[in-house]
Amino acid sequence: MSADDFDRDRFLRAYEKVIARWPPGRRALEVDTPFGTTYVHVVGPRDAPPLVLLPGGRATAASWFAQAGELGKTHRVYAPDLIGDPGRSTVRAERPVRAVADLTAWLDALFAGLGVARTALAGHSYGAWTALHYALHAPARVSGLALLDPTQCFAGFRPAYLLRALPMLLRPAPRRVRAFLEWETGGARLDPDWLGLQEAAAGFPAARPVTGPRPAPEALRALDLPVLLLLAGNSRTHDVERVAARAGAVLPRVETAVLPGVSHHALPHAAPPELTHRLVGFLGGGAR
Fold first, then answer.
1. What distance in Å separates the CA atoms of residue 45 and residue 43, rounded to the nearest whole number?
2. pTM for the whole thing?
3. Which of 39, 90, 119, 285 is the most exposed place for a label (fewest CB within 10 A)?
4. DSSP letter at 142?
């Protein structure tokens, strides 16, 4: 499937079906930035401490539906669609996002547009990679950092994962997306609405994702922020034990837990209750 074959109406129907599972009171904002307009879902009390949720690559902000309600009880939750990724955010052709510095500048502009001076920041997968780079860029603006099975932060991808993902990346199609997700999640039952959205996003005319080297160990050692590292016990994306060991060796204030029985792509929507408990406990214990 090429971008020319992309069925935008199907994608939007699938997107709205998942968003409908967010808690009552959700509202949507559009924030203009130098890189384009960012579409943000907002839930929670206006006077509560802010929390920004960044989804995994190609996952959309809708994927936080299972966590937004509980997190929105104690925080003002902001969940943007990543700029240049599938979702309702729109890019500005004359200002593409091409480097880590562009991603951090986008978040600077987004936070300014939201009126957020300092926030807790949580991300899954590529969203966690983005969140970590932002915390290194502007640590004074981040009160705490929650990383959910982060990719390319502390260890690389498993070769088998990349080989399985390659056909889907080269020629995206709904059946290839489904086959890849069924493999990575070990045949576990997948939420049908979420899976439908992932399939509908195949061929989305997204920008090439920003990639780069893992953060330098010396930079991570200087990151004086509370960090919660939650790893998917059944992740086929990377070696979970290696990720935990390397993070523990460089981050001065990291709390690490491995969530059993869940894979990388099942986060954050199909994780065990422990994920919610850990996030709520962390955010209420100083990451505010």
1. 7
2. 0.96
3. 285
4. E
